[in-house]
Amino acid sequence: MDQxxxxxxxxxxxxxxxxxxxxxxxxxxxxxxxxLYSDALETSVNIxxxxxxxxxxxxxxxxxxxxHPYGHDKAEYFAAVLVGVMIVLAAISIFRxxxxxxxxxxxxxxxxxxxxxxxxSAIINGAWARFLMSFGRRSSSPALIADGKHLMTDVVxxxxxxxxxGLVLLTGWQLLDPALAVIVGVLVLWSGWELVKESIGGxxxxxxxxxxxxxxxxxxxxxxxxxxxxxxxxxxxAGRSTFIDFxxxxxxxxxxxTAHDICDRIEAAIKEGVPGARITIHVxxxxxxxxxxxxxx
Length: 297
What we know:
Blueprint: H1 3-31, H2 34-60, H3 75-104, H4 112-138, H5 142-171, H6 176-203, H7 210-223, E1 229-238, E2 241-249, H8 256-273, E3 277-284, E4 294-295
Parallel strand pairs: 2-3
Antiparallel strand pairs: 1-2, 1-4
Helix pairs in contact: 1-2, 1-4, 2-3, 2-5, 2-6, 3-5, 3-6, 4-5, 5-6, 7-8
């Protein structure tokens, strides 16, 4: 997928974040609700995380160089970790605002216009978050996926706040306003932890999924005609790239040209089934066979 398009999408996230933040600040100013204030705090982090995602996508798009022969794809994982950390900071800010709400005893003024602004921001955020996650998966961009997940936590926050506002209006229990902020803060904190955990997996050279491994094995088996077997298959994920290496056993009397043709055929098949695959094949003679691994049919 065109890297320029990824950059434009990441850049657009910043403008969406600014629009949503403006709506939520307006909602808070009209209502003086602690819950709405907490919602706006969480949204302010979205803008910073979108900037981080844009920087990561730009850096990951740089080609491999002498100092980074495998490319810069992992830069996106650093951005995803940063987004996760910022979600945690947002949760802490929400807890602080909730505490102030419990102790100050202020009574919010729930104006219909303020509630409407918050609802509009939730709709915009939800639509953009779904688009970001879908686009991020199609383009294999961890930073855009992380940004989308972060926005979705903001949607959860906004929906929870609106439900809480409804309960306050129905019951008259003003303490529900900061109590709701605490509940939302816990949910946001949990989502931040999940995001950091997933990103760390990428930084630690996590292997490809079982589905991708199955595709690789199938392509080697079906397109390795002339070889005997493949073993010691290893994979690791780095952003949009899937690094694959394995040993391919061929008959001892096979020419280099023929072995090279087999490798080319296997590589082409794997790249068709696994976008972004970067493949290294180590050719071995027959006596190196382990009689295990992938049998070539």
